[in-house]
Design goal:
Blueprint (H helix, E strand, L loop, with lengths): L1 E2 L4 E2 L22 H7 L41 E7 L2 E5 L5 E6 L1 E7 L4 E9 L2 E6 L4 E11 L6 E3 L5 E5 L4 E5 L14 E5 L3 E5 L2 E6 L3 E5 L2 E4 L4 E6 L5 E3 L2 E4 L3 E6 L5 E5 L3 E3 L3 E6 L4 E5 L2 E5 L2 E5 L3 E3 L3 E6 L5 E5 L3 E3 L3 E6 L9 E5 L3 E3 L3 E6 L5 E3 L3 E3 L4 E3 L5 E5 L1
Parallel strand pairs: 3-7, 6-8, 7-9, 8-10, 9-11, 9-12, 10-13, 11-14, 12-15, 13-16, 14-17, 15-18, 16-19, 17-20, 18-21, 19-22, 20-23, 21-24, 22-27, 23-28, 24-29, 27-30, 28-31, 29-32, 30-33, 31-34, 32-35, 33-36, 34-37
Antiparallel strand pairs: 1-37, 2-36, 3-4, 5-6, 25-26, 35-39, 38-39
C-alpha cells in the first residue's frame, strides 16, 4: 500500500492492502468519548526487567569490519588499575607508567597517556566521581560500584576515543548526577555517565543511571549496546539515553523512563539501528515551553526520537508517552522497519501539542515484523512522506485510533 500524499492520517476506517489512499482529511477530533464507549485500551507498555534469551554475542574478528573496534575483546588490557570507593575516599591500587591518578576525597581524576588501560571500579560514595583525560581507549569494568556526584557527572570521559563500559557478571552498578552542575571551562558534562567519545556497553551485569540534573547516559559520539547487558535509566531532568552520532542496539534489556518536560527516553541525533534486544521507553513529561527574545518554542516529549534514519531489523521496541502532546516515536527522517516488534502508545492530552503513537517526517517502509501504533486523542500514525507496506500484510484499524500492521 502506498500513498504519495504529503501527509497521511489514519482515522476510524478499515484499510486493506492493495488499496491506494487517494485522499484523507486532517482530523483534530477528540476521540475520548468514542474510546470510552467501545472500551478500547492500548497494548500495555510497562517497564520489563525480566530475563531475555539471546543468541551468543560473538565478537567481530575481521579487522576490516567497521564494527571491529567496538568489541572490547579486540584490544589488549594487560594494564589494570583498581579504584575502590569507600564513602568519602577512594583507594587506588596498581600504577601504570603514563597514567596519573589523583584522588581528592572520593573525586578521582585520571590522565591516561599510556594506551588501552582497564580501570576496575568498585565500592560506594555519595560524594564522588571519576573523570578521564587523554585520547586513549579505556575500559571501565564496573564491578559493583555506586557513585553519586552532587555537583556533576558521576563518570565523565573527556577523551574522544572509545569508552568500553563492561558490566561485571552478576553485579549491580549505580550512577547518579547532581541537581546542579559545577562546570569547568571548555569541558562538557551532560549526564550521569558522559563521554566525548563513543560508549560501548557489554557484559552480563546491571547498570542503573539516575539523572536529576541532566541526562542519564550521553555521548557526543555514538553509543553501542551489546547483548547481555541490563540498563535502567531514570531521568527527572533531560533525556534518558542520548547520542550525537547514532545509537546501535544489538541486544540487551534496556528500560528508560523520563519525567522532565520535553525529555526523550532515547534520542539519537545520528542514524539509529536496532538489531536485537528489548527496549522499553516511557516518557511521562508534558510539552516544554520556552521563550527567548519574545519567541515561544514548544517541544513535546517522546519515548524514542531519531533525527535521521531509524532502521529496525530485529528485537523489541515498546514505547509509551503519557504527557501532553507526547509521541511514542518521533522520527525526523525515514523509518525502515524490517523485522522485530514495534509498539508505540500515546496516552497524553493535546492541550499544546498533539499526542501521536508515531510521527514520522520522512518515509515509512514496513517489510517485516509486528507494527502497532495507538493514540488516545489524536492520530496513531502521521507520515509526512511515503508509506510502503510489503505484500503479505493486512492492515486494519479498530473503533478507536489504533493502527495495526501484521501478517
Amino acid at each position: 500500500m502506498e500513498s504519495m500524499m504529503k501527509k497521511i492520517y489514519f482515522g476510524l476506517v478499515v484499510l486493506a492492502l492493495g488499496l491506494t489512499l487517494a485522499s484523507c482529511e486532517k482530523d483534530d477530533t477528540d476521540f475520548s468519548d468514542i474510546i470510552a464507549e467501545y472500551q478500547v485500551e492500548p497494548l500495555e507498555v510497562e517497564l520489563d526487567f525480566s530475563a531475555l534469551s539471546e543468541a551468543p554475542d560473538v565478537p567481530v574478528t575481521d579487522e576490516n569490519d567497521s564494527a571491529y573496534n567496538d568489541y572490547v575483546e579486540n584490544s589488549p588490557w594487560n594494564k589494570v588499575i583498581y579504584i575502590d570507593f569507600n564513602g568519602a575516599s577512594a583507594t587506588v591500587t596498581n600504577s601504570v607508567p603514563g597514567v596519573a591518578v589523583q584522588a581528592t576525597g572520593a573525586h578521582v581524576v585520571v590522565t591516561n597517556m599510556s594506551g588501552p588501560v582497564q580501570f576496575v571500579l568498585s565500592g560506594q560514595t555519595s560524594n564522588g566521581s571519576i573523570k578521564f583525560y587523554g585520547d586513549k581507549r579505556l575500559q571501565l569494568l564496573l564491578n559493583g560500584v555506586d557513585i553519586t556526584n552532587p555537583t556533576g557527572a558521576a563518570i565523565n570521559n573527556q577523551g574522544g576515543k572509545s569508552l568500553y563500559v563492561v558490566l561485571a557478571e552478576g553485579t549491580v552498578n549505580t550512577l547518579q548526577d547532581g541537581a546542579t552542575y559545577t562546570m569547568v571551562d571548555d569541558e562538557d558534562q551532560k549526564a550521569a555517565l558522559f563521554s566525548e567519545g563513543q560508549i560501548i556497553f557489554s557484559g552480563k551485569g546491571t547498570l542503573n543511571a539516575y539523572a536529576v540534573g541532566r541526562a542519564g547516559i550521553r555521548s557526543d559520539d555514538y553509543i553501542r549496546i551489546r547483548p547481555g547487558v541490563n540498563i535502567y535509566v531514570n531521568s527527572s531532568a533531560l533525556d534518558g539515553i542520548r547520542a550525537n552520532d547514532g545509537i546501535i542496539i544489538d541486544g540487551g534489556v534496556i528500560n528508560v523512563e523520563t519525567t522532565g518536560n520535553g525529555a526523550k527516553g532515547l534520542r539519537s541525533e545520528g542514524p539509529m539501528t536496532v538489531n536485537g534486544g528489548r527496549v522499553t521507553a516511557i516518557s511521562h513529561g508534558d510539552t516544554r515551553i520556552t521563550t527567548e527574545d519574545g519567541i515561544v518554542d514548544t517541544t513535546a516529549c517522546a519515548a524514542l526520537a531519531c533525527d535521521t534514519l531509524l532502521t529496525v531489523t530485529k528485537g523489541t521496541l515498546r514505547l509509551r508517552a503519557t504527557g501532553d502532546g507526547g509521541k511514542g516515536l518521533n522520527a525526523k527522517q525515514n523509518v525502515d522497519f524490517k523485522g522485530g516488534s514495534l509498539v508505540a502508545v500515546a496516552e497524553g492530552t493535546k492541550k499544546i501539542k498533539k499526542p501521536k503513537g508515531m510521527k514520522i517526517d520522512g518515509n515509512l517502509d514496513v517489510s517485516g515484523g509486528y507494527f502497532y501504533s495507538y493514540s488516545r486523542r489524536s492520530d496513531p500514525l502521521e507520515v509526512e512522506g511515503r508509506l510502503n507496506v510489503a505484500a503479505g500484510y493486512k492492515t486494519y484499524q479498530k473503533k478507536a485510533k489504533v493502527l495495526l500492521i501484521e501478517y
